Amino acid sequence: MLGIQSVITLICYLFFILVSFWSIQAIPFYKFMGKYENQAKVLIVLLSVVIGYTVSTFFLNLITTIENLVFLVK
């Protein structure tokens, strides 16, 4: 069971990182950063990882909390 949970966690992390990367690309960082185009690309990747990890952790904790509500009823 623990192995399945690890796979689900990894898939969730990757999914939300990809979604955040896709959505952050709409922000024109290149206009703000001027001649620092390479740093803008790194900033996009780092922001994607931070946002994706945070959102994924939220949803995984939400699912765990909902699963633990069963113990309240018993």
TrEMBL record:
What are the record keywords, sorted?
Membrane, Transmembrane, Transmembrane helix
Task: Quote the InterPro entries the UniProt record gives.
Answer: DUF1146
Where would you find the membrane-spanning parts of this chain?
6-30, 42-64
Q: Give the source's domain of life in one word.
A: Bacteria
Question: What is the name of the protein in this document?
Answer: DUF1146 domain-containing protein
Q: Which organism is it from?
A: Pediococcus stilesii
